[in-house]
Amino acid sequence: MAKANLRAAITPADLTITPRDVRFGRGHVMKRYWLNDDPIATAFYNALSVTFPKGEAFFVESVRAFREGASPKLAGEIQSFVKQEVIHSREHVAFNRHVVDQGYDVSLLERHVDEALALTKGRPLIANLAATMALEHFTAMLAHELIANPAHLRGGDAQAAGLWRWHAAEEIEHKGVAYDTWMHATKDWTRFKRWKVKSIVMLLTTQRFFQGRRKGMLELLRQDGLTGPKVWWRLFWYAFGRPGMARKVAGVWFSYFLPGFHPWKHDDRALIALAESEYEDALLPGARKLAVAA
Q1: I need a surface site. Which of 109, 223, 256, 271 has the fewest CB within 10 A?
Q2: Domain of 152?
Q3: At what angle do helices 125-148 and 191-223 cross, to 10 degrees?
């Protein structure tokens, strides 16, 4: 138990998780291919955004289920995590309205999310927490790469790019909460059992994550009249070639399986300030005051 607590304490003692109540895109008309006129890049972010409102609600419930008995520090971080995720959901609901306004039918993508969440019904709560922990690692990996490599959003619609940078910054900020909650919830488990369960769940989550994003992108591209092997190749190249998000996060993904892993072994808080400077110009009138006040 002492070892578990020591490992959980890797989260920086001076870390502050700050919900930033900001808004993007209200009253703003976004063109269909808002990211560099590139249907592939646009489809990636559009398809991912559709999953967030319901997915983040699942994250919130999975983490809150184990807040009882948490240390005051972890309990406070869980509360801030919940607030951030609720605001993220609100902003992605607004972003998804823009996607629909461009003529996309996202009902199939939403059904896929519902089907994925249906698989969690009746499972032990600890299994849902393990899945949340794995997905939070995914979002933290993507968030780091998104901010560290400006090429991902360069040339994109200012409001849309601002939303994604803001979301990425907060994902980095709270990237250890689900993991520390897991350490608290499994404090009586052996280290091997904890590693085995989290590793199996990560492998399953990775498979479903890639399958889900591929299906979502292909469906949106199909609605653009883009189908066939050439489109499949462009998807592969976007993920593993240039800009190569999947290729660039592979090492961090693998680190999840190493003994003694903790999200904050890689302290990348400097990216939060960088993202804030980038998305500040995209904030809607009045949102700057909310962000400063937060």
Answers
A1: 223
A2: 27-284
A3: 60
Among candidates 172, 146, 169, 173, which has minimal Cα distance to 280?
A: 169
Measured between alpha carbons, how far is 6 from 180 in angstroms, rounded to an integer?
A: 11
Domain membership flag for residue 15: no
How does the average pLDDT of the chain come out, rounded?
93
What pTM did the predictor assign? 0.92
Position 171: which residue type?
E
Tokens representing 288?
């700057």
198-214 confidence digits (pLDDT tens): 999 999 999 999 999 99
Residue 292 lies in a domain: no
Residue 18, domain member (yes or no):
no
Let me know how long the chain is. 294
110-139 pLDDT per residue, tens:
999 999 999 999 999 999 999 999 999 999
Torsion of Cα atoms, 285 then 143 then 210 then 131, to 10°:
-100
What backbone phi and psi angles, to 5 degrees, belong to 21?
-85, 85
How many domains in the chain?
1
For 189, residues 6+ apart whose C-beta sits below 8 A from its C-beta are: none
Instruction: Collapse the DSSP code of 172 into the 3-class scheme (helix H, G, I; strand E, B; otherwise coil) and give the result.
Output: helix
Residue matched to tokens 């520390």: 180
CA distance 46 to 106: 10
Distance of CA 5 to the CA centre of its chain: 26
> Is the distance from CB of 45 to CB of 167 less than 8 angstroms?
no
Is residue 293 a part of any domain in this protein? no
Contact criterion met (CB below 8 Å) for 95 and 49: yes
